[in-house]
Amino acid sequence: MFTIILSFLSGVIGPLLPELLKFFRQKQDNAHELAMLEIRLRHAQYEHLWRMEEINAKADIEESKVLHSGQNSFGVQLLDASQKWADSEWGKWLVTPTFYMFSFLDFLNGMVRPVIAYAAFGFYMAYKVAIYEMALRHSDPVAAILQTWGENDWAVLMTVIGFFFGQRMVKAAFGGSANTVKAGG
């Protein structure tokens, strides 16, 4: 009787066994495919971040090149363009004074920022020397130096340092670029 029940169960379950094995194998394959898909998505996300960092680095390099390249002189551009007028009687009479005028204007244009910066620094130093001289009349040199340096001087110093080195310090401290949300990422 037991063999009859066992043979009946094997007859009913036997054909289902390969289907059950296929089901479990398909479940394992699907789990593996999902894991691979997650890895690919994570890799694509990192690849996107790397690409953005590469684009930002290239933009920084190009910006640095532009900032450190010389300014195109309109006088020189005018002189180059005047080659077609060189044979005419208007050529030298018109181009030469215009070239000198625009060259002088280019020189003045290029001197605006340095002159303002040096003048501001010169006035600041003259003011500090005057304060030092006044403080020196009433105290010794060390006390006079300490009296000339105040909280506003620290603010000026930090502003100058922040202007010249701020962007690089932020990148060094937080890593990446301004587009990076996480520190060091």
Major beta-sheet overview: none
Count of DSSP strands: 0
Morphology call: elongated
Q: What is the overall number of helices?
A: 6
Low-confidence stretches: 178-185
Mean pLDDT: 79
Structural class: mainly alpha
**Into which percent range does the helicity of residues fall?**
over 70%
End-to-end separation in angstroms reads: 72 Å
Q: What fraction of the residues are assigned to beta strands by DSSP? A: under 5%
Question: Could you characterize what this model shows?
Answer:
With 185 residues, the protein is an all-alpha fold. The chain has a domain at 1-69. It has helices at 2-13, 16-68, 74-81, 89-138, 141-148, 151-174. Helix 3 runs antiparallel to helix 4 (89-138) and helix 4 crosses helix 5 (141-148). Residues 178-185 have low confidence and may be disordered.
List keywords for this structure.
185 residues; mainly alpha; 6 helices; 84% helix; 0% strand; elongated; disordered C terminus
The gist of it:
With 185 residues, the protein is mainly alpha-helical.
Produce the secondary structure layout:
Layout: H1 2-13, H2 16-68, H3 74-81, H4 89-138, H5 141-148, H6 151-174
